[in-house]
Write a structure and sequence with these properties.
Helix 3 packs antiparallel against helix 6 and helix 11 runs antiparallel to helix 16. The protein contains 20 helices and 8 strands. The chain is 39% helix and 6% strand. A hairpin with a 7-residue loop joins strand 7 and strand 8. The two termini are 37 Å apart. The longest helix is centred in the N-terminal third of the chain and has 26 residues. The chain is mostly helical.
Length: 551
């Protein structure tokens, strides 16, 4: 976070009687946190809207969402819009960050930092108010706002730590005009997790459910009112997500405290958290609710990872073909009911109705719109249209802010890493069987080395050693990854990217994170600032070989 004082106008100073020192004149253009938060209502309003700002920045407010999607090949597009084409191209280019060209998304970095600092100042103002005998209305109302404020600060810091190599770990204890130092992503994420613990501790104060306390007003979560217990579950779900997302490499992912991930996930949300988006709500839905559904130039599904669903042999042929000669226009035939069924394109097109809501199946369409040429490895017949109902409803509707499937699958990964295969299988089967109609893992898989059931029609089928040019039935770890890709695709910022980098699955040389933007470095260090690029084979790149020996 950078605090800067700007002179917004010319002050006309009149010295009366020659004895008044003009330097003592009050400059009302200077940031004055005490004055801004002088009224209790302004404190609560700032805190109340802070989570909305945090999630809007990631899901619909900047180019990062689209860039991470193409870097993870969750999405494929050659368009330069949002830098999708340049970020998703093979070979992968670095994220340039110098005086001539900065691609580090300064607006995103700044928005999260500024929102974190704003909310931290609001929480500090609330603490001063209470210390001086004031109140937002009732003691319970004070506690509710304080808990939400800690959570909102953590939301901003958590996404910064997941996305950038460094950031400033701001909190409510810092002076409003201080400039905290840049620290590594792990340090910032630790601060975010600690703030979430503070949010939970405040919410668990028995007084928080008194008059004016929990549940939260519905406007704070766009139509969802959270009881104290459900607020704690929501925060713990975020803790499980962020604890896994901060890892940059397979070694870091393995070193995650999975016992804590399991504990948070098992005590996380018990059903999808569904909010109202678009229209006059102020809650963004962004690319996946609108522009990606315009035509195939904006969104296709490259077979690289999506092909794991195929049982026809078409994906094997595609794998065995050199990169520039690949032809993605083949049928993906899958027993997974989230894919259109049939063995011909007309049959699959007939089985690709527009979704009525996010639970409609199939999630994927074999499109009837015109196919758009692209890189031979990026093009296909398919679009992930699970959220197209938002566009069809004038870009507004109900949207799953946090899916129960995510906490189930986070717990499943933890159980796999702990060798608790039966517990993992039960978690994976919730969507594998319940949504995909695939054979259950429970009772069929008892070790990490067992292939998923289904024989020749098993799903997922993954590139197999030694050549990785043909497929074999994946194990339970690959089944967990497949379910995360199917269920979380396009749901939130980096829904494939953060997991894929931690698993070592990204295309070789993909940037693993964004650098601190040039303008932030300049503002902090002036002429001494040092700028740097990340990815593209330089620092912070996906190592070679990756999991599947992709380029």
């Amino acid at each position: 976070m950078t605090t800067r004082v700007r002179v917004l106008g010319v002050l006309s100073l009149v010295v009366v009687g020659g004895c008044r020192d003009p330097l003592l004149a009050k400059n009302l253009n200077n940031p004055d946190v005490i004055r801004v938060f002088a009224q209790p209502a302004s404190i609560e309003q700032t805190i109340a809207g802070a989570y909305q700002v945090c999630r809007n920045v990631g899901i619909g407010g900047t180019d990062m969402y689209q860039q991470l999607s193409t870097m993870a090949l969750e999405n494929y597009s050659q368009l330069n819009n949002f830098s999708m084409g340049p970020r998703g191209a093979i070979p992968r280019a670095p994220i340039l960050n110098n005086k001539s060209t900065s691609q580090a998304l300064a607006g995103t970095f700044s928005a999260w930092h500024r929102n974190a600092r704003l909310v931290a100042n609001a929480v500090a103002a609330l603490d001063r108010l209470v210390k001086n005998g004031g109140t937002l209305g009732t003691p319970a109302q004070n506690l509710r706002a304080r808990a939400w404020g800690f959570f909102a600060i953590a939301c901003n810091l958590g996404w910064l730590a997941a996305s950038y190599d460094s950031a400033a770990a701001v909190d409510h204890l810092m002076a409003s005009d201080s400039i905290p130092p840049l620290e590594g992503a792990k340090v910032v994420m630790d601060k975010a997790l600690a703030l979430m613990d503070s949010a939970i501790a405040v919410a668990n104060d028995p007084a928080s459910t008194g008059s004016g306390g929990f549940p939260t007003p519905a406007a704070w979560l766009s139509g969802v009112s959270l009881s104290r217990d459900n607020f704690v579950r929501f925060v713990r779900s975020y803790k499980a997500r962020f604890r896994a997302y901060v890892a940059r490499t397979p070694a870091e992912r393995a070193a995650v405290d999975w016992a804590k991930v399991i504990a948070d996930a098992e005590n996380g949300i018990t059903a999808d958290v569904v909010v109202s988006v678009g229209g006059t709500s102020g809650w963004n839905i962004g690319f996946q609710g609108a522009q990606m559904h315009v035509d195939a130039a904006w969104h296709q599904m490259s077979p690289f990872y999506w092909g794991f669903a195929d049982v026809s042999g078409g994906y094997d042929t595609w794998l065995a073909t050199p990169l520039t000669a690949k032809n993605g226009y083949f049928l993906i035939v899958s027993p997974d009911l989230r894919w259109p069924q049939g063995t011909t394109r007309p049959a699959q097109q007939a089985g690709s109705p527009n979704p009525g809501n996010y639970l409609s199946r199939p999630y994927i369409q074999n499109r009837t719109l015109q196919d758009t040429p692209g890189d031979p490895w990026g093009s296909s017949f398919y679009n992930y249209y699970r959220y197209k109902y938002i566009q069809l409803g004038s870009n507004q509707g109900s949207y799953p802010e946090f899916l129960k499937a995510e906490v189930d699958l986070l717990a499943a990964e933890g159980y796999i890493r702990a060798g608790q295969i039966a517990q993992a299988a039960a978690k994976i089967d919730v969507t594998r069987v319940g949504r995909g109609g695939l054979p259950a893992l429970s009772g069929a898989v008892t070790s990490l080395n067992d292939p998923v059931p289904g024989g020749a029609n098993c799903v997922p089928r993954v590139p197999a050693p030694p050549t990785y040019t043909s497929t074999a039935c994946g194990n339970i770890f690959e089944a967990m990854k497949y379910e995360k890709r199917m269920e979380l695709a396009f749901n939130h910022l980096g829904s494939w990217f953060y997991d894929s980098r931690g698993w070592g699955d990204l295309i070789t040389q993909t940037p693993l994170e964004y650098p601190v933007p040039v303008n932030e470095m300049e503002a902090r260090y002036g002429p001494a600032a040092r700028f740097y690029n990340l990815g593209g084979g330089g620092p912070s790149s996906q190592a070679s070989p990756n999991t599947y020996r992709f380029p």
